[in-house]
Design brief:
This protein is an alpha+beta fold. The protein has helices at residues 130-141, 165-179, 198-217; strands spanning 18-20, 23-27, 35-42, 48-54, 60-63, 66-69, 73-81, 92-101, 109-118, 147-148.
């Protein structure tokens, strides 16, 4: 008998996660740099779902902070810096990408990406020695706590301010149709070609009812 090949059970946190780049640098004087893209790769034979966490969620907008990646595919995650101020220059934040199987809750793997804001690409902050800089980053992020970014999962959209003009016009047309005389009425000053059949009036009444429901919901 042919033996079935079963995928070995993965230990929580043991799955390598492939993300590029591993560091995000935003520049205050370059508007284009305020939007960065993280690419998450899935080289495996099974689909992965992901979640993006951050140590400072109020400073960033993550478009689609949760999602899925098909086998041997990749997905782009857009990150925008939304709090560009001088007090944040040189401050290191962290993003954590957690991945798991579609049917599992436990995180099979995670990858952390640092993010920092600098005043300008041409005027970098004074660079300390590499050993001192590495130690400073580790100390700053040693007790980092990660938070979900569910509040900024999608791009903000304007709140609906009522029914659209097209909806109102269509409603007026339906009301006018219902007020026209029915086909076959003799005593009417309205021209005969404006007389509507019963079926047409039923359609107008039905559409008017749907439009009323839409208006009430908005």
């Amino acid at each position: 008998m042919q033996q079935q090949h079963r995928q070995p059970e993965l230990v929580e946190g043991s799955l390598p996660v492939f993300v590029f780049p591993t560091e995000l640098v935003f520049y205050a004087d370059e508007q284009t740099s305020h939007k960065q893209v993280l690419t998450l790769y899935n080289p495996y034979e099974f689909a992965l779902k992901f979640k993006v966490l951050c140590t400072a969620p109020n400073k960033y907008t993550v478009v689609d902070a949760t999602g899925a990646v098909k086998p041997q595919c990749c997905v782009d995650i857009v990150i925008r810096h939304r709090d560009v101020r001088a007090c944040h220059y040189g401050v290191y934040d962290k993003f954590r990408l957690q991945v798991s199987e579609q049917s599992q809750r436990k995180a099979l793997g995670r990858k952390e990406v640092t993010a920092t804001l600098r005043p300008s690409a041409s005027q970098e902050l004074p660079s300390p020695r590499p050993q001192d800089e590495e130690r400073r980053i580790k100390e700053q992020l040693a007790d980092s706590e990660f938070f979900e970014q569910t509040a900024f999962q999608t791009e903000s959209r304007p709140v609906a301010g009522g029914p659209s003009l097209l909806t109102v016009l269509l409603g007026l047309v339906c009301m006018a149709a219902l007020m026209l005389p029915t086909l076959g009425e003799q005593e009417s000053t309205v021209p005969v070609y404006l007389h509507l059949s019963v079926n047409k009036k039923l359609v107008a009444a039905y559409v008017l009812g749907l439009l009323t429901m839409v208006i009430l919901r908005t």
